[in-house]
Design goal:
five-stranded antiparallel sheet, 6 helices, alpha+beta, about 230 residues
Length: about 230
């Protein structure tokens, strides 16, 4: 009877010990599943962007040693007399966009979109800056003769991709894409850290390598950047 009582006393304790372990395994399984899902989804979303930004990081770092041959294209046209007369009522000095009719003519005659763009207007001419990724451009309209001159300079694909990396003259849509891409990269990195944490017990080199990844840039910054 004494032995049976002793067994009955031990059994509840043994069962109770199994419950926390099962709960722990269940929580670990849940987080592994969640982290794996978010990790591969964020990797898929940011994959092409990460490759683009990594490659252009190299080309930007070596921009001075990568040759670029600027190509300039110029075209001219003459503003029709009715539109030129309409410009007579346009302010002598302003930064307002050109009238809509002039913008439509520019799009048709020169294939240049200037609608809504600020100008640098003087009594002599209207100047519209047209910067683009990897190049530059502008359009001028002589207010006396109506002669319009459009010039566009490009510096090649590497310069174009470098400017996309910096978000230079790429427009609002690309501006927001960079933000979304950056969020996807943060999710990718954070979920990767979570997976490292869960697998670190079986991979002894995990935290030394992670610490090394932090230590190397810190040491370089402290010693070599002044």
């Amino acid at each position: 009877m004494t032995e049976l009582a002793a067994e009955n006393q031990i059994e509840p304790t043994s069962r109770g010990a199994k419950k926390p372990k099962a709960a722990l395994n269940g929580a670990r399984s849940f987080w592994l599943k969640q982290l794996h899902s978010w990790h591969w989804i964020s990797a898929a979303v940011s994959l092409v962007g990460m490759i683009l930004f990594a490659v252009t990081g190299i080309t930007l770092n070596h921009a001075a040693s990568i040759p670029g041959e600027p190509v300039t294209v110029e075209q001219t046209a003459t503003l029709p007399a009715p539109l030129l007369q309409r410009l007579a009522a346009y302010p002598q000095e302003t930064t307002e966009p050109v009238p809509d009719a002039v913008a439509r003519w520019s799009a048709e005659a020169l294939k240049v979109q200037i609608a809504g763009r600020p100008t640098e207007t003087t009594p002599e001419e209207i100047y519209v800056a047209l910067p683009i990724p990897g190049g530059d451009g502008w359009l001028t309209i002589d207010r006396a003769t109506g002669e319009a001159v459009h010039e566009k300079t490009t510096r090649g694909w590497i310069a174009y991709l470098n400017d996309l990396h910096k978000g230079r003259n790429a427009g609002a849509v690309w501006f927001w894409f960079i933000d979304v891409f950056a969020v996807a990269c943060v999710i990718f990195a954070v979920t990767g850290l979570g997976l490292m944490w869960l697998h670190a017990r079986g991979r002894p080199s995990t935290w030394p390598l992670a610490a090394l990844g932090l230590l190397i840039p810190v040491v370089i910054a402290l010693i070599f950047i002044h």
